[in-house]
Design goal:
Blueprint: E1 5-6, E2 11-16, E3 22-28, E4 35-37, H1 38-48, E5 65-67, E6 71-73, E7 79-82, E8 87-92, H2 114-121, H3 137-150, E9 155-163, E10 166-167, H4 191-203, E11 210-217, H5 231-240, E12 245-250, H6 261-264, E13 268-270, E14 276-278, E15 286-287, E16 290-291, E17 296-302, E18 312-315, E19 321-324, H7 338-361
Antiparallel strand pairs: 1-2, 2-3, 3-8, 4-7, 5-8, 6-7, 9-10, 9-11, 11-17, 12-17, 13-14, 15-16, 18-19
The structure holds flavin mononucleotide.
């Protein structure tokens, strides 16, 4: 009945709450002999960690990841090599302020998971949202770092493509500029507009939604398990499992419903090396639930943070009608920090399918 695990061969179980002593994950099924380091994993965690700009939550967490099992330290003192046994990784919580949350111990924040956790379990860790908090996603990012090492030739990247109604200009897309601004924005011209908009949102104690795009280049053709383990199905499911995600698109997604079959066809030719070439990628790199060899492209919509300073109507656990302002430290646009989380979920999904494809067909 518990669902804290995803993946089949690259199997990730996360544990821990926002305000407990620590959180982490166990990755089971990682092949032996893969070299990695805690520092490499840390680069991905650093992208997700809070407090890095005025546009994200001011909670101060170092988010240092420690590998507790499943890897042998090498003589250089930094390299770890997987042994094929469960890899346990832990991240300590160091900046909890549970007092911030005492007011919502019995009150349900509109748009958050308070009401549904009580309805389901009858008990709720209200400190920072407990397990419904996106702090849990730090563990996914650690697992994603490991997943990337399994597919050394696959490049997984993410970018924020829209904040509220302000979308990037795709003609300006520059992957190299994504890490040069606090938004993971691929369009340098868009950055000042987003800064001004988010400053206004933040000062008003409000919040705003966003759209994240994640891609994977170098994925071989053949990954995916029709008909109930399709690659696009699992990507969508795993992206949808991220907190605050309300929609997922693969390739041209909902736009496909608006264009003709002619325009949507990803036509094919034979390239100079005799290999198939697609003339477009509306499919987002997946056909029939199997990767085509083209880049995998997925987007997901993140709702505005439910914790806002403006009073909203709600109820409490004792059946009273109440008005709630959510104090505490919150991300005004959770879509920003969702970028590395989306990358991690794509990495874990692809690593899992990579191993499943190899297991079934002996290829890759
Ligand atoms: C990176 C990230 C940070 C988040 N931070 C907050 C936050 O500070 N305050 C908040 O109310 N929700 C935050 N959320 C969203 C909640 O975790 C989420 O809305 C809540 O668990 C309810 O689940 P649902 O929106 O998926 O239905 C965050 C989400 C992400 C991805």
């Amino acid at each position: 009945m518990s669902h804290n695990t995803f993946g089949h061969l690259f199997r990730v179980t996360t544990w821990g709450e926002s305000h407990g002593p620590a959180l982490g994950c166990v990755v089971d099924g990682c092949p032996p002999g893969i070299a990695f380091s805690e520092a490499e994993l840390q680069t991905w965690l650093d992208k997700r960690k809070p407090g890095q700009s005025r546009f994200v939550t001011q909670r101060r967490e170092a988010d240092l990841v420690r590998v507790l099992s499943g890897a042998m330290p090498q003589e250089d003192g930094t390299t770890l090599v997987t042994t094929g046994t469960p890899i346990s990784m832990m991240i300590e919580n160091t900046d909890q302020r549970s007092k911030d949350y005492s007011e919502i111990a019995r009150r349900y924040r509109p748009g958050h998971a308070d009401f549904t956790y009580d309805a389901k379990y009858g008990i709720r860790d209200y400190r920072g949202g407990g397990r419904s908090s996106a702090r849990e996603t730090a563990a996914r990012v650690a697992a994603g770092g490991l997943a990337r090492k399994i597919m050394a030739d696959v490049k997984i990247r993410g970018a924020l493509v829209q904040i509220g109604t302000l979308a990037v200009n795709r003609d300006n897309w520059d992957w190299d500029s994504v890490d040069d601004n606090p938004f993971f924005c691929p369009d340098p011209e868009c950055v000042p507009r987003w800064e001004a908009h988010l400053d206004a949102v933040r000062k008003a104690g409000s919040s705003v939604g966003a759209v994240v795009e994640v891609t994977a280049d170098g994925v071989p053709a053949g990954l995916g398990a029709p008909v109930y383990g399709k690659l696009d199905q699992d990507i969508a499911s795993n992206l949808m499992s991220i907190n605050a995600v309300k929609g997922v698109e693969i390739g041209n997604g909902f736009h496909a419903a608006t264009i003709s079959g002619e325009d949507n066809a990803d036509e094919m030719r034979i390239g100079a090396d005799g290999e198939p070439v697609f003339l477009s990628n509306n499919a987002g790199g997946v056909l029939g639930g199997i990767s085509t060899g083209q880049p995998i492209v997925a987007r997901f919509a993140v709702k505005p943070t439910s914790s806002i300073l403006t009073e909203r109507r709600s109820i409490d656990a004792d059946g009273n009608e109440v008005d709630i302002r959510t104090k505490g430290r919150h991300d005004p646009c959770v879509g920003i920090r969702a970028v590395p989380i989306g990358e991690a979920m794509l990495a874990c999904t692809l690593a899992d399918h990579y191993l499943r494809h190899r297991g079934q067909t002996g290829r890759v």
